[in-house]
Fold this protein.
Amino acid sequence: MQLLTLISLALFALSSDARPVRARQPSTSHLVTVPVRRVQRDTGLHVELRHEQQINRAQRLAARAAGLPAPSLDELRANIERRASFIDQPETRKRFNIPPPGFGSTSLGTESFIQDDDTAAPTIAQFSSEVDPDGADTTFVVTLQLGTPRRNFDVILDSGSGDFWVDSDQCSNNGAGCGNHTFLGPNESSSLVRLNKGFSIEYGSGSAAGEVVNDTIVLGGMLIDNFTFGVAHNISDSFANDPLADGLMGLSKPSLSTQGVPPAPIVMRDVGFFHQAIVSYRLPRSLDHVNNGEVTFGGLDPAKFDPSTLVTINSTDSGFWIIPLEGASVNGNAVTLNSTQALMDTGTTLLVLPTADAIAVHAQIPGAQQQQSGQFNIPCNTTASVSVRFGGNDFEISPEDLLFASGGRTTGDCTSGIGSFNQPGNQWLVGDTFLKSVYFSTNFDENTVSLAKAV
Ligand SMILES: *[C@@H]1O[C@H](CO)[C@@H](O)[C@H](O)[C@H]1NC(C)=O
Ligand SMILES: *[C@@H]1O[C@H](CO)[C@@H](O)[C@H](O)[C@H]1NC(C)=O
Ligand SMILES: *[C@@H]1O[C@H](CO)[C@@H](O)[C@H](O)[C@H]1NC(C)=O
Ligand SMILES: *[C@@H]1O[C@H](CO)[C@@H](O)[C@H](O)[C@H]1NC(C)=O
Ligand SMILES: *[C@@H]1O[C@H](CO)[C@@H](O)[C@H](O)[C@H]1NC(C)=O
Ligand SMILES: *[C@@H]1O[C@H](CO)[C@@H](O)[C@H](O)[C@H]1NC(C)=O
Ligand SMILES: *[C@@H]1O[C@H](CO)[C@@H](O)[C@H](O)[C@H]1NC(C)=O
Ligand SMILES: *[C@@H]1O[C@H](CO)[C@@H](O)[C@H](O)[C@H]1NC(C)=O
C-alpha cells in the first residue's frame, strides 16, 4: 500500500510539474502520466452511417494488417450507399427515428462521408468539459509541446500506426487548407531542423504526407531535443476538418514507421526517462461523465487497474499489437469462434469481428438481431455480459459499451458496438468498444501486451 502511494505520488509530481526536464541518467523516475481527452466530433450524421464509417475504417486497417490491398474508395462508398438504403426502409426509418426523405441514398453526398471516414484514429479521454452528446467515444488525444518557443499541439493517440506527425505551416492540402489547427515549421520554431527526407502514410481512414524534421518535444514534463518526427504538408480532409487534433502519435511497434524512426516511448527510454519502453492506456468513456482518461509512459499506473486481473501476453512478430484470442462468452456461455488472433487498436472505435464470429456472438445476446445491412442491433437496455478471453482471463465488456453511440438511451434497439466485416483471415480488430473496459498496456522491449480490469 505504501509503495503504491509512493509510486502514485511520484507520478502526480511528475505530471503536474510545469517545468520540463531533460532526462537524468540513470533514470530517477519510472512513470509519466498524461491526461487523455476525448474529442467531440459532431458530424450530424445518422448513427447507422457513422457506424458504417467505422466498419469501413476497420476494413481498410485489417486489409493493411493482412498485407492485402485496401478496399477502394468506390467500394467504401458503395458500403455507405448500401447502408443508407436500408435506413430508407420505412420500418428501419421508424425504428431509428430518421427524418423523412431528402436523406435518402440518392442525395447522400457520400463523398463527404468517405472523407469524414478519413478521420484517422482513436478517441481517448476527457479532462475537459467537452462532452460527446451521443457517447460515440471515437478519438483520444493528448496535449504536448513542440519547438522553440514551445507551443501546444493536440495529437491523436493511435496504437495501430507507427508515425508521429503534426500539421506543417506549409500544409496546403492541395489548396483546400488544413483547418483551424496549430502548425509547425522553421518560421514558428527556431530549433527545427529539416532532414531532407519525406514521409507518407495511409490510415484505415485518411492519410498524411510531408517531411521529416528534428525538433524539441515536451510530453508530460519530459523534454527531448532532436526528437525526429514528421510535419505534414498534405493531410486528408478528415484530419483537416478534425475539431481538435493537430497531428497523430503512432504507438505501434517500430516496423510500421514510414519515417524509419522509433516511436516516442523508445526514444524516451533511450534518453533515460524510464527503464522500459511501455505505454499504458486508460481510455475514458463519455457515459461515465468523469475525466479519468490517461496514458502512462514507462510502466502501468497501479491506480487504474485491478492487479488481481493483470495478464501479460506475448505479441506476434507483426508491427501491430496482435495477440492470441482465446475465446469469448456471453452470460457465461462459451461462443464457438473461428478467429484466433486479436489486433489491439486504440484508433479503432468498434470491436470488429469476421462475419461468422459476429453472428455467433450476437446469437447469444438476448434480443440482438441482425440488420438487413449485415450489422446488428442490441436492445438499448441490454445487461448482457460479453467477455473476451486473453492470457487465461475473461475480460468483460461493460454492457453500455456493447451499444454504439447510444447516448445513454435505454429503450428500443441500439446499433451494436460489435461490428461485422468480411475479412479474409481469422483476426478480430479490437478497438475502443473493448478497450474502454480494460487497462491496456504495450511493452516495446518485451513485445508484450498487458490487460487488466480497469478501475
Ligand atoms: C516564413 O517566413 C518567410 C519570411 O517572412 C515568408 O516569406 C514565408 O512565406 C513563411 N513561410 C510560411 C510557410 O509561412
Ligand atoms: C480556432 O480554434 C480556436 C481554439 O482552438 C478557437 O478559439 C477559434 O474560435 C477557432 N476558429 C475558428 C474560425 O473556428
Ligand atoms: C536528428 O536527431 C537525431 C536523433 O534523434 C540525431 O541522430 C541526428 O543527428 C539529428 N540530425 C540533425 C541534422 O540534427
Ligand atoms: C541535434 O543533433 C545534432 C547532430 O547530432 C547536434 O549537432 C545538435 O547539437 C543537436 N541539437 C540539440 C539541440 O541537442
Ligand atoms: C495530397 O493527397 C491527395 C490524396 O489524399 C493526393 O491526391 C495528392 O496528390 C497529394 N498532394 C501532394 C502534393 O502530395
Ligand atoms: C513469451 O516469449 C518469451 C520470449 O520472448 C518466452 O520465453 C515465453 O515462453 C513466451 N511465453 C509464452 C506464453 O509463449
Ligand atoms: C428491456 O426492455 C424490454 C421492453 O422494451 C423488456 O421486455 C425487457 O425485460 C428489458 N430488459 C431488461 C434487461 O431490462
Ligand atoms: C475461419 O478462419 C479461416 C482462417 O483461419 C478461414 O479460412 C475461414 O474462411 C474462416 N471461416 C469462416 C466461417 O469465417
User: Anything to note?
Assistant: The longest helix spans residues 47-65.
